[in-house]
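queue> holo job accepted (beta-D-glucopyranose)
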Amino acid sequence: MPDWTNTSLIASDQEYDHAPLIRTVVTPDGDHGGVSSATLLVSALGIFEGFVDGKPDGPDVFSPGWSSYEWRMRVYSCDVAALVSDRPFVLGFSLGKGWAAGRIPFTTPGGFYAHEPAIIAQLEIVYSDGHRQLVGTDASWQSGPSQTTFHEIYDGQSVDARIDVSGWNSDVTDREGWTGVSVQELDTHRLVPYDGPRVVRHEDIAPQRIWTSPSGKTLVDFGQNLVGWIRLSVSAPAGTEITIRHAEVLEHEELGTRPLRTAKATDTYTTSGGDDVFEPTKTFHGFRYAEVSGWPGELDPEALRAVVVHSQMDRIGHFECSDDMLNQLYSNIVWGQRGNFFDVPTDCPQRDERLGWTGDIAAFAPTAAFIYDVKGFLGEWLKNVDAEQAHHDGIVPFVVPDVLKFFERPNRPRESTCLWSDAGVWVPWAIYEAYGDEEDLRASFGTMRGHLDHVETLLSPTGLWDTGFQFADWLDPNAPPDDPFKAVADKGVVATACLFRSADLTARTARILGETEAAERYEAYAARLKEAFNAHYVDGGRITSDCATVYALAISFDLLSPADERAAGDRLAELAEANGYRVATGFAGTPFVLHALSRTGHDDVAYRMLLERECPSWLYPVTMGATTIWERWDSMLPDGTINPGQMTSFNHYAFGAVADWMHKVIGGINPLEPGYSRVLIAPKPGGGLTWASTSLDTPHGTVAVTWRNESGQVDVDVTLPEGVSGVFRGPDGTEKDLAAGRVSLQISA
Ligand code: BGC
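queue> job finished
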């Protein structure tokens, strides 16, 4: 750990619209030879962009991200050897409120972690003779105004280019009018390494269409619901004010902003009179459409670009097939992940929320871990889960970082709740399955145990988890739009089943880690839950509340006897058919329903459900032109109006968990050992698809499966990387050993 002795947390001594610039002039120590290394360490309450001698210290924005700041202020580290000069130079930071000092969440005033942005930074230069020079933030630094006159993550940013900041980060001469900084108390034990990936800009997207709405507004369509911001270039008389509002959808041919709730999502630019380029880096928006007003003359499409922004992650998994609707669904799932992996795995990226809801990622983690390499991203987030839980009696909260604890929510007790709190077990397990690193289990083993031990105190005398507050099968399409709590699935069934899965996975984790005593404890815990579940909820294969979710969970989690599992599978298929193959599950059941059908011999029903287009279904949003996964099955109603419910996002990844079935069953790629060191290749052609191609860059190399159905005769090409072996299983159950390399097989569909 670095030595912070002479380095302080500092903030501007003026308000400067909470977006101050701060800087110092560094005079390199002479006579020590050239620079052999230069490392910049920075943490902040708020967000920063760093500059060394006028150049950005890295490509990141929104650093150091959002962590459970009370215990984990992450220290961003970067190599700036190429940027430091041998003559005096400026080390400067542009600060913003971010999550720590900004308005978050909902309608609260925010500022829960800090009243103003504050930063602690240290530059260490090592010269060729071994001499070390340390420059740290302290009372001698200076602060001044930036061009940002307003900014909030939810509400947007205002920039006034008439404010002269030229040379602020490159010119060493004293800056007129700048003031000092105040030094703040900081317990440096809170400073921890920032191991996860940084938030960076990705591609730019050009407008696809610009037109005038019925009310006379200039609207722009970028063709894709995305997360980031709009960069614009403009030359206009000084003082021209241009305003951009953002929205995910149109309603009645105008911008549909109601789902944003109180988030204003509005950026305002005031021109300097020269050539201006505006890019708001202290806010982000979830949008496909924009409304531009104040533009001088006709809006030039070349002047606008949507900039996609999210955490840096490598794309590792791909799926494509002969059905364009399914390909669009898959693309929507990928974009849902992109937009919501913004330092924290969030529920949504656009309204006055954008929180690390634990249930959402519990549902989506296996899919996420296939599409992108999320080991670092989710591993980092789990450290926050661990920190929050350690300070809350073993409770894994609804959201991590837990901002909900800062204010009263009378109808939402601070207590463990199924699926959401189970994230403390399910997410590390998903990472382990995907990448095969036992250290990831070890890192979360305490969280897993804490969760189970706490929930044990909440169980009824019957041994069921059927008391207390539960979201359970949240957003079941059969619940009324304004009351998503009213899911059909019995809350006790859902909670006890989810807890059983957690106990089972924790017991397995304990075995893997060689923790025999703990393994026995959680095996017995799981066995008790299974017994209670069967005794109270299962009768001849029928499960209390008799709906898709309860069967999906009981089958997928191995809660039933073989005979009951068969009966439950048949009942699930029967319910699906009676429901016209439309979806009848919410957050809890959706990730598992197609797997449960497949496991009980109903692949045909699973395919029919996946391909169903009537609402509610996975493809219904595709028929409505969706380019991301929606929060509700019917976020947009068939008549093109927005669902009247209070929560209606068009970018929520949870229901995209169906891609796990697409990867494993259509594509046929399954890990036999965690991390895919051995694989089960078991594609099940169906649904009228004529081909499908799926691949995954595993830690051992690329596994790829392509099949083509030529009228009943299916040719399958399998590629396994060096060192990976496995088993091929045909749809009829016959198996064949697979070795590394490429092999072509034939099966009948
Ligand atoms: C969020 C969800 C979340 C849920 C739990 C919503 O407001 O957007 O995705 O899991 O609340 O209640």
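queue> The radius of gyration is 27 Å.
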